[in-house]
């Protein structure tokens, strides 16, 4: 089933792997305000899909629905074979263990050190309490994001970019199949943004993850995307690779390319 | 419309409380985090409770003395103070101080975690934040309040003794004899049960306010404020209900 969008450019139909996330006709409103209207999306295996849109266009709501943090009003959401809106708590937890979610504000637990932040999901989800095993896993995840030296620091001592990377390390420690990045470069300077973008690509290559990257940062979209979906007023209106969308001259996307 | 909203909010509160009992009494249990919270919450309030209870013991004794003296019943001072402290003053002082100190602390802490998406982060990583954050805190306040009340009662009686001794030169042995002659096991037991309910109210109200706080920094302040005000109201309501129940017991 292909996504129902106004304009979809099918860039490499034959080389795509299997579908790992599929959202069909999803509708979500808060009170009288429609946030998502007939939203459709497919994410393929090992693909980096960017959802591009202005602030308040419903991008974060879409990925929160994917992990069951928000319930849709209608529509179907299938993630790794799980029918998300109809899962029991146990099944939802099983699914969530296979998804890494990097939050816009990093969401590091500020009462814990960096090491404790990374150990927390290992202890609670995998029941790992062996000190040596914990140290190995923590150091490996920190090496992946290039922040071994931050192990004993507290979140308050970290810069914005470091927090983002530690947040990603905390999700990588459980070896997720899907990574969801909510505004990974928001509030960062261009150099640090570039480092985060490179990290997103490295994560895909090392962990074989499929990723959805929510952003309004066009350079992040250019650097990290295999495919881009434009989300405007709760609808996904355009889709394609970065170059295809640039050529397409879609009015909704022009402000991004001209910026 | 407002009434409908009120009913929805009420249903949410009941669901929150129901979830507490479901997660508190079914494994996996949050033993380590609950013990950590017990230490933190108990330790955090101990000094304040000891200090205020001591002062309350002194003040209450000094204020009661003239009334008793006018009836020539000054020797009843230890009996009167001890009954008042054990039955009402100790639990009430402890409850109100903990509502202010622990309730605001729990409300603000969870609200700031909610605002900075830390609770969502726990949720999506499958780490059962409700059990970790709410159950452990509510159990800690429920278990620690009776212990703090015991401290408060002892210290308030010490304060009272200091005042009685200063005025009447009453010996410590006589004071203790007077106290133990009037304070019954039912007084002690009911006071501890009542304070456990106080603790539960403080924990659950603080957690609910924090867990369901509005986004933004104003949400944190509002959650802390709600936690304090609502739990204080609950403390007085519980006190009144327990008084009615005890009156029935004593009448039998």
From TrEMBL, chain A:
Q: Which Pfam families match?
A: ABC_tran
Instruction: List, alphabetically, the InterPro entries matched.
Output: AAA+_ATPase, ABC_transporter-like_ATP-bd, ABC_transporter-like_CS, P-loop_NTPase
Q: Which residues form the ABC transporter domain?
A: 21-258
Superkingdom, taxonomy of origin: Bacteria
Spell out the molecular function terms from Gene Ontology.
ATP binding; ATP hydrolysis activity
Question: Which keywords appear in this protein's UniProt record, sorted alphabetically?
Answer: ATP-binding, Nucleotide-binding, Transport
- Tell me the first and last residues of the signal peptide: none
Q: Return the PANTHER family for the record.
A: INTERMEMBRANE PHOSPHOLIPID TRANSPORT SYSTEM ATP-BINDING PROTEIN MLAF, PROTEIN TRIGALACTOSYLDIACYLGLYCEROL 3, CHLOROPLASTIC
Tell me the protein's name.
Phospholipid/cholesterol/gamma-HCH transport system ATP-binding protein
Record organism: Chryseolinea serpens
TrEMBL record, chain B:
Q: Name one GO molecular function term.
A: phospholipid transporter activity
Q: Which residues cross the membrane?
A: 39-60, 143-168, 188-211, 223-249
Name listed for the protein in its UniProt record: Phospholipid/cholesterol/gamma-HCH transport system permease protein
Q: Which InterPro entries match?
A: Permease_MalE (IPR030802)
- Alphabetically list the UniProt keywords: Membrane, Transmembrane, Transmembrane helix
Q: Please tell me one Gene Ontology term that the record gives under cellular component.
A: ATP-binding cassette (ABC) transporter complex
> Is Membrane one of the keywords UniProt gives this record?
yes
């Amino acid at each position: 089933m292909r996504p129902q969008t106004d304009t979809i450019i099918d860039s490499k139909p034959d080389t795509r792997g299997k579908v790992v996330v599929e959202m069909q006709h999803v509708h979500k409103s808060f009170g009288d305000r429609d946030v998502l209207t007939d939203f459709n999306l497919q994410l393929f295996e090992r693909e980096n899909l960017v959802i591009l849109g202005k602030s308040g266009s419903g991008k974060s709501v879409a990925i929160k629905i994917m992990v069951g943090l928000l319930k849709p009003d209608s529509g179907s959401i299938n993630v790794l074979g799980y029918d998300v809106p109809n899962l029991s708590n146990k099944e939802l937890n099983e699914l969530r263990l296979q998804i890494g979610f990097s939050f816009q504000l990093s969401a590091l637990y500020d009462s814990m050190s960096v090491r404790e932040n990374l150990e927390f999901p290992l202890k609670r989800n995998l029941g790992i309490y062996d000190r040596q095993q914990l140290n190995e896993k923590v150091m490996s995840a920190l090496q992946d994001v290039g922040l071994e030296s931050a192990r004993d620091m507290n979140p308050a001592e970290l810069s914005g970019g470091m927090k983002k990377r530690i947040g990603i390390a905390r999700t990588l420690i459980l070896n997720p199949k899907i990574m969801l990045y909510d505004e990974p470069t928001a509030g960062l300077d261009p150099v640090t943004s570039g480092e985060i973008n490179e990290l997103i690509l490295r994560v895909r290559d090392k962990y074989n993850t499929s990723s959805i990257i929510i952003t309004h940062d066009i350079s992040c979209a250019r650097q990290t995307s295999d495919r881009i979906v434009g989300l405007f007023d709760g609808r996904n209106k355009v889709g394609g690779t970065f170059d295809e969308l640039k050529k397409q001259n879609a009015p909704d996307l022009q402000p991004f390319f001209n910026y | 419309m407002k009434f409908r909203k009120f009913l929805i909010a009420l249903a949410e509160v009941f669901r929150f409380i129901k979830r507490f009992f479901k997660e508190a009494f079914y494994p996996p249990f949050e033993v380590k985090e609950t013990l950590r919270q017990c230490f933190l919450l108990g330790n955090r309030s101990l000094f304040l409770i000891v200090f205020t209870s001591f002062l309350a013991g002194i003040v209450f004794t000094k204020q009661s003395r003239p009334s008793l003296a006018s009836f020539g019943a000054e020797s009843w001072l230890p009996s009167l103070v001890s009954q008042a402290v054990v039955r009402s003053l100790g639990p009430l002082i402890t409850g109100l101080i903990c509502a202010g100190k622990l309730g605001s602390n729990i409300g603000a802490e969870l609200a700031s975690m909610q605002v900075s998406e830390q609770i969502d982060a726990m949720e999506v990583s499958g780490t059962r934040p409700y059990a970790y954050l709410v159950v452990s805190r509510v159990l800690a306040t429920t278990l620690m309040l009776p212990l703090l009340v015991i401290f408060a009662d002892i210290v308030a009686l010490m304060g009272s003794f200091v005042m009685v001794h200063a005025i009447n030169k009453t010996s410590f042995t006589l004071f203790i004899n007077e106290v133990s002659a009037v304070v019954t096991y039912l007084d002690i037991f009911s006071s501890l049960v009542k304070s456990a309910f106080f603790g539960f109210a403080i924990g659950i109200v603080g957690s609910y306010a924090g867990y369901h706080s509005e986004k933004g920094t104003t949400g944190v302040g509002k959650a802390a404020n709600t936690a304090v005000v609502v739990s204080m109201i609950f403390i007085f309501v519980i006190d009144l209900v327990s008084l009615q129940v005890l009156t029935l017991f004593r009448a039998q």
